[in-house]
Write a structure and sequence with these properties.
Blueprint: H1 2-24, H2 32-44, H3 50-74, H4 77-91, H5 95-108, H6 111-115, H7 122-125, H8 127-132, H9 137-168, H10 170-194
């Protein structure tokens, strides 16, 4: 599994990493930790360079978040309620989570866009209230890139540091990757199954 992942990333190249990181921030089940960790291993092998991976990954993350920011800019809260009511189960967005991100954004302002880049759940959802509040685009991009850049760098360095162990214990590392991906899928399935429609939360909003 490890060899397959590395081969896939190697063949996809920097463009593939950009597309995967953009998609990871639009569709939740794709794990950035696996993408960046694998890219870090390729950096250690000399098949990719740290700066190129870091730049394309961070740009991809920012582009993916711009999708939700743009929706926040274009749509009202009522329209978002209808969208979450219809598609929230598959996006694993719950109205409670959106209102939580919105309230945090209102309380702490633009800098929360940077801080929540380190939160597995809220880092994507916060782009919606940022768009709704018409946060200046340049500030949104900068704070998103700063937070994402730090997180991506940590993951790349982690993958690079773990490369000798991955090579030495390839089979065990493969099981680890499979377990991580399966855990992500299981978490996604759990959220789909336990998701509650918007109407169940309207009275609590």
């Amino acid at each position: 599994m490890t060899a397959f992942l590395l081969e896939l990333l190697n063949k996809g190249g920097y463009l593939g990493i950009f597309l995967l990181m953009a998609a990871e921030n639009i569709f939740p089940p794709i794990p950035s930790e696996v993408i960046m960790g694998g890219a870090g291993v390729l950096v250690a092998k000399g098949e990719m360079t740290f700066w190129a991976v870091w730049i394309v990954a961070t740009v991809g993350t920012a582009v993916g978040n711009l999708f939700w920011y743009w929706i926040g800019v274009r749509w009202s809260e009522e329209q978002l309620k209808r969208i979450i009511d219809r598609w929230g189960r598959w996006l694993t967005f719950e109205w409670d989570e959106f209102t939580k991100a919105r309230n945090i954004f209102r309380k702490y302002g633009d800098w929360i866009v940077f801080a929540l880049r380190f939160s597995p759940i809220l880092r994507t959802i916060v782009s919606l209230p940022a768009g709704l509040a018409h946060m200046k685009l340049w500030r949104f991009v900068i704070f998103t890139a700063l937070g994402s850049g730090i997180w991506n760098a940590v993951l790349i360095f982690g993958g690079r540091a773990a490369a000798p162990l991955v090579e030495r214990f390839e089979k065990l590392a493969g099981f680890g990757v499979v377990a991580f991906v399966l855990a992500g899928v299981a978490f996604y399935v759990y959220r789909v199954v336990t998701w509650k429609p918007v109407k169940a939360h309207e009275k609590q909003d």
